[in-house]
Inverse folding.
């Protein structure tokens, strides 16, 4: 559907205003209107389809009209392939500007130098207004939305020299290429390379439930078979079971989840919490609909659990990340509409109007292109700086330390081992009372800059260098080019990029020309809007894609109804939030959460 | 969905910008290039303008004749087989390549580059084709006139500039419709591509760009091409039926960023594919390498 004349007019007026004044410098009401205009502008001018010849899959023998399919197909009933696992990433930049970079420019400046000189954490810089659950949640969501899958081992890796004086164990750094799209055809000739998202692109809880039927059945199964009651399998202590596929791995204690790559305690906590939430929803539905079978209970609980996650992200997580009054209002309005949650709770949704009553239950609309997560979205969500290097696990009753460790101790099976030492409530309490890192330069976790792959062969991964190279490889425009594409002002010098004079000098020394600054480096260095943890550049993609993930999804728009969710299901989504989920599964945390307005703000520590 | 401007008796034009919709209408047999006078007033003016200025001895330029035209089809095939680099022939001389690379490197004037481009295109048809400042300016005027109605265009008609420019180009092209199209209209696509290439070459990330990326960023389709509706039919592109005489404007320029590649730029794989695709891409590739 095209933008209406009114939408185009309003967007045009704010484009003119923004030439002289950026949106967050406007008075509150104008800033809110500006955000609405920005979203319209971005929806029609910054989503690009990369698919060229997709065939619709065969309809499954399954009630896809009322339940989510395992692979995400049949969400859009006209283009059944849309958003399913294995479809291509879309783009936020015009396709002609998304060709991957080639050597020698691909390696300029050297990604390892950028990693060492600009990204490496010298000392931990905390984000004092939020807690580590915010970082955990982010990764929990990213695993729902996207994965490029395994890297390409068939082609030679990217290789570039490690500068002298570096403590890297080898003289050359090699990084495997992104797994290629093996389903290209003649229509792709002359176009930039594409990549496939191996998980469902929808906001459907696929990190919990998997992106295919096999995985879905796996998380529902004990060694005796699929649980007949519609629940997810948890062990006898209420924790995630171990992944049977990891039984022969060097660390066999990896927990099982729909997506369990890059596993650490933050992910483990989130998965445990929302697996328990699924099972609580099943219990509620069984009380309401005792005649229904396990399969029905499972599918409805999945719908409800996923929608609750969406609501928490929109109304709690994002306002914690972007702490400005304008954003607080705008994000709540995206769920409840401009009439607000008080009006909603008193009178319900007045009509299916996105502006007045929020995106849920408004008409589904993909705007300028079929829905897909984009490469640029992937790039702006590279927020590894949020993760601390050191952790202290403490008792929630008296704040005494139980166990101190580093991030490396919590990778893979380290999480399951921690659960044996520290009670689940105390894990949540410890994450809820600790600060994540601030997403700025010089704050990339050092453990992630030297991840052991094959320690015996001196093989490590520098994730910071990899992040830099990935954006270049996948044709994500560099920082200045990206801002041009978003119609933002473009810094002409390093002084215009950041207020921090030391960073200006450092960036100048590495990049020489501000036009060469990488997207990641630029967004970390950029002077941020007041109250924001992320840059305004990244925010533009956030505001576009956050709404799009909901607006394109049939189960969050046209079919966000009591008929599809059940009346009890809609009530569950609308009446619960992160605090309710936490207290349901860790009730003794009441005191820690008592004075906290948002569960992603630092929790209260006991005194005296 | 496409935008339709319809005032009964006055105008009925459909503006199409979505690549998928452009593709579907271009493949639709009921949408053609039959510019006879019919339909509402403005539609008649558009078709009259096309017939008046873009013909040679009563024959329209090849990009304006119907899909059923056998001569067009045959010549399109012949040209695709014969234009350089077919048969291993170079697309231009070493001197010409140097001149164009010089322009891309940031030196030299646009006019000099334009004359060279016109010469390269002309020589692809007639080895003794000659381009100069006068022929370049004439083709520039024709191209601007083609873009649409304007006061300046009226002035060009009144003063006879348009007629003289057209005649000059016709003489240089020896009344050949294909040579005329290439040297008067098609050459502007190449010139625009070279100008973009010059900007890319000056950018600090020039060393990062592969040839595919350069070509994709430089090549641009014509901003818009007209079509006519030949029989009433329903299409998801428009809310109501399209009627005979409706003018459909395929806005390739706007569709380009959504679907870069030969299909949009050269209508590759379609009945109206540009026969100069290989010629143009090879020329641009050679210039980039040389620069």
């Amino acid at each position: 559907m095209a933008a209406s004349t009114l939408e185009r007019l309003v967007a045009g007026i704010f484009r003119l205003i923004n030439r002289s004044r950026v949106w967050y410098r406007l008075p509150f009401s104008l800033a809110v209107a500006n955000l609405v205009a920005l979203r319209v502008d971005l929806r029609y001018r910054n989503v690009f389809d990369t698919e060229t010849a997709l065939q619709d899959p065969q309809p499954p023998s399954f009630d896809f009209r009322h339940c989510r399919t395992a692979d995400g197909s049949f969400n859009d009933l006209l283009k059944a392939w849309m958003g399913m696992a294995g479809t291509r990433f879309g783009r936020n930049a015009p396709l002609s500007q998304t060709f991957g970079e080639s050597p020698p420019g691909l390696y300029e400046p050297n990604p390892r130098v950028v990693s060492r000189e600009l990204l490496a954490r010298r000392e931990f810089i905390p984000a004092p207004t939020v807690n580590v659950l915010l970082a955990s949640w982010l990764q929990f969501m990213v695993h729902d939305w996207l994965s490029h899958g395994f890297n390409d081992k068939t082609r030679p890796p990217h290789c570039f020299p490690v500068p002298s004086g570096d403590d890297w164990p080898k003289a050359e750094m090699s990084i495997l290429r992104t797994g290629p799209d093996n389903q290209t055809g003649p229509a792709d000739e002359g176009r930039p390379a594409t990549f496939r998202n191996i998980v469902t692109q929808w906001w459907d809880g696929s990190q919990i439930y998997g992106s295919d039927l096999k995985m879905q059945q796996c998380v529902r199964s004990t060694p005796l078979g699929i649980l007949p009651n519609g629940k997810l399998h948890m062990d006898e202590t209420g924790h995630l079971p171990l992944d049977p596929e990891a039984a022969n791995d060097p660390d066999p204690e990896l927990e099982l989840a729909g997506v369990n790559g890059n596993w650490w305690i933050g992910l483990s906590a989130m998965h445990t919490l929302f697996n328990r939430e699924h099972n609580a929803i099943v219990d509620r539905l069984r009380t309401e609909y005792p005649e229904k079978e396990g399969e029905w209970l499972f599918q409805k609980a999945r719908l409800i659990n996923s929608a609750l996650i969406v609501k928490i992200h929109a109304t709690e997580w994002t306002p914690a990340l972007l702490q400005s009054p304008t954003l607080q209002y705008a994000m709540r309005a995206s769920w409840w509409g401009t009439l607000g949650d008080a009006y909603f709770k008193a009178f319900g949704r007045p009509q299916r109007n996105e502006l007045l009553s929020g995106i849920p239950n408004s008409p589904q609309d993909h705007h300028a292109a079929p829905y897909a997560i984009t490469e640029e979205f992937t790039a702006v969500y590279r927020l590894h700086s949020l993760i601390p290097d050191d952790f202290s696990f403490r008792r929630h009753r008296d704040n005494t330390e139980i166990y101190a460790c580093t991030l490396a101790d919590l990778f893979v099976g380290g999480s399951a081992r921690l659960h044996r030492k520290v009670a689940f409530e105390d894990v949540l309490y410890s994450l809820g009372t600790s600060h994540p890192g601030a997403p700025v330069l010089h704050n990339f976790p050092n453990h992630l800059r030297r991840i052991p792959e094959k320690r015996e062969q001196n093989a490590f991964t520098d994730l910071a260098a990899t992040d830099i190279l990935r954006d270049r490889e996948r044709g994500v425009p560099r920082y200045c080019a990206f801002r041009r594409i978003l119609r933002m002002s473009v810094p002409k010098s390093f002084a215009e990029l950041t207020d921090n004079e030391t960073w200006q000098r450092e960036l100048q020394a590495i990049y020489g020309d501000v036009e060469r600054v990488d997207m990641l480096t630029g967004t970390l260095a950029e002077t941020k809007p007041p109250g924001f943890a992320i840059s305004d550049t990244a925010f533009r993609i956030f505001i576009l894609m956050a709404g799009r993930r909901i607006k394109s999804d049939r189960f969050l728009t046209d079919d966000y109804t009591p008929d599809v969710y059940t009346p009890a299901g809609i009530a569950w989504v609308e009446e619960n939030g992160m605090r309710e989920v936490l207290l349901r599964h860790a009730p003794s945390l009441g005191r820690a959460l008592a004075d906290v307005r948002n569960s992603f703000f630092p929790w209260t520590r006991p005194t005296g | 969905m496409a935008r339709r401007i319809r005032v009964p008796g006055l105008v009925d034009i459909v503006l199409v910008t979505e690549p998928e919709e452009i593709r579907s209408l271009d493949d639709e047999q009921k949408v053609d290039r039959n510019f006879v006078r019919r339909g509402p007033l403005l539609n008649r003016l558009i078709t009259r303008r096309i017939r008046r200025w873009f013909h040679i001895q009563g024959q329209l330029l090849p990009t304006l004749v119907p899909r059923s035209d056998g001569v067009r089809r045959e010549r399109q095939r012949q040209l695709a087989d014969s234009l350089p680099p077919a048969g291993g022939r170079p697309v231009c001389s070493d001197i010409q390549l140097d001149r164009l690379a010089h322009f891309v490197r940031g030196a030299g004037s646009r006019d000099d580059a334009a004359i060279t481009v016109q010469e390269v295109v002309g020589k692809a048809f007639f080895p003794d084709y000659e381009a100069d400042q006068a022929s370049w300016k004439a083709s520039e005027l024709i191209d601007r006139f083609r873009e649409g109605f304007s006061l300046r265009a009226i002035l060009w008609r009144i003063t006879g500039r348009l007629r003289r420019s057209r005649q000059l180009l016709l003489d240089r092209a020896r009344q050949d419709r294909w040579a005329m199209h290439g040297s008067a209209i098609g050459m502007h696509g190449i010139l625009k591509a070279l100008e973009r290439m010059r900007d890319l070459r000056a950018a600090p990330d020039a060393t990062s760009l592969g040839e595919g990326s350069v070509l994709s960023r430089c090549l641009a389709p014509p901003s818009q091409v007209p079509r006519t509706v030949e029989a009433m039919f329903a299409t998801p592109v428009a809310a109501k039926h399209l009627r005979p005489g409706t003018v459909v404007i395929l806005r390739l320029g706007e569709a380009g960023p959504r679907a870069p590649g030969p299909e949009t730029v050269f209508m590759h794989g379609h009945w109206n594919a540009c026969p100069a695709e290989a010629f143009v891409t090879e020329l641009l590739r050679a210039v980039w390498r040389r620069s």
User: Anything to note?
Assistant: The longest helix of chain A spans residues 294-321. The CA atoms of residues 592 and 605 of chain A lie 6 Å apart.
